[in-house]
Amino acid sequence: MSKRSIEYVARRVLGEAHDGPVWPLAFASGVSGPILVSSAVDGDSHLCLWDCVSGSLRWRYNGPTIVNQGVYGVAVVGAETNTPVVVAATMSGIFRWDGMTGIQLSREQAGSGKTILGVSPVDISGQPTRIIGAAQDGLLYLFDPWTGAEVGDPLRGHGTTINVVTVVRRPRSGDVVVSGDEMGVVRRWDSHVGDWVGDPFRAEEEIISLCPASEAIANSPVVAAADAAGDVHFWDVTTGEKAGRTLSTGHSVRDMALVALGARLGVVISDDDGVIRCWDTHTGDFCGTVAEGTSLAATSVNGETLLAIGSDDGQISLGALSWV
Asked: Is a pLDDT exceeding 90 seen at residue 96?
């Protein structure tokens, strides 16, 4: 039986996105369809919010907050309502914007003075959605995205720089927060009580990227962790057990997404060479080069995988990803 390959069909190019390499990117489910937030590594490092249905730019922010601080991670909270908030992790805290207008909500950043390297929305039972931030000081901080106030005590357990944080959705039993640090340790946290769950996962190298796969696209809620050696590890966040083989990509990982490709689970990776590739997580087979690009984000729309790819020259393309 021949191996299947991957195909990326670009459907739309978002015009006049950025002047420098695009990174990071993040999707959110808006009222009328998916929206995308983007920034850039250098050059004109402004923040953009895009309507993925029409391809139009909703707003662009290029004030000193972004130009002077740089952006390590972005997210959108409340996109499914009429009160969305865009958040960005920077070297001096988390900045916030009104998702409808692009107006900065406050000149005082949340977590002032803390270097926040990653952000993710998290749902906590009986409370509004929060933002969780991975910090250089080894702590995880919860923030109210609408007020910027820090919520409760930080989560302790790493003791060294936390590079990334993500949330694995489990509709029946609650979200699991997953964080990865510079020593290769990946911890799970109960989002309801703030305690870590079970023993940590351990990789040989620094954790560069984390990506969740919910039960909707995998047999069980899974997290993928890419380390500095280019290896991708998979764990079941409920049991703490390894989920399949470790995938050795042979490439430095920058961004990563777990995507449903029919009945299969694929992992799409962008690397420091500006190439985006895909592997079959079940077999470990390389499925082919998707495109050239510096960053990526993926979401599912009506059962189809929508992929956003940021380029070195500041462009962003939107397209469908499928097996052929």
From this structure: yes
The Cα 27–Cα 34 span in angstroms is 7
Q: Compute the distance between CA of residue 140 and CA of residue 152 in angstroms, rounded to an integer.
A: 11
Cα(244)–Cα(148) distance, integer angstroms: 39
**Tens-place pLDDT, residues 149-190:** 999 899 999 999 999 999 998 777 778 999 999 999 999 998
Given this model, what pLDDT does residue 1 score? 41
Res. 43 pLDDT band, cuts 50 70 90: low
Task: Please state whether beta strands 264-271 and 253-261 pair in parallel, antiparallel, or not at all (unpaired).
Answer: antiparallel
Amino acid present at 127:
Q
Tokens found for residue 121:
């929305």
Question: Over 93-161, what HEC string results?
Answer: EEEEEECCCCCECCCCCECCCCCEEEEEEECCCCCCCEEEEEECCCCEEEECCCCCCECCCCECCCCCC
Which residues are CB-neighbours of 263 under 8 A, at least 6 positions away?
none
Entry pTM: 0.92
pLDDT at res. 169: 83
Phi, psi of 67 (to 5 degrees): -60, -40
**Cα-Cα-Cα-Cα dihedral sign, residues 48, 292, 267, 94:** negative
Q: Is 15 exposed, middle or buried (0-12, 13-18, 19+ CB in 10 A)?
A: exposed
Burial 131-160 (b: 16+ CB within 10 A, else e): bbbbbbebbbbbbbbbebebbeebbebbee
Model confidence band, residue 132 (pLDDT cutoffs 50, 70, 90): very high
Q: What is the DSSP letter of 281?
A: T
Q: Which of 176, 175, 140 is nearest to 155 (CA)?
A: 140
Are 87 and 74 within 8 A, CB to CB?
yes
CB 318, CB 10: distance < 8 Å: yes
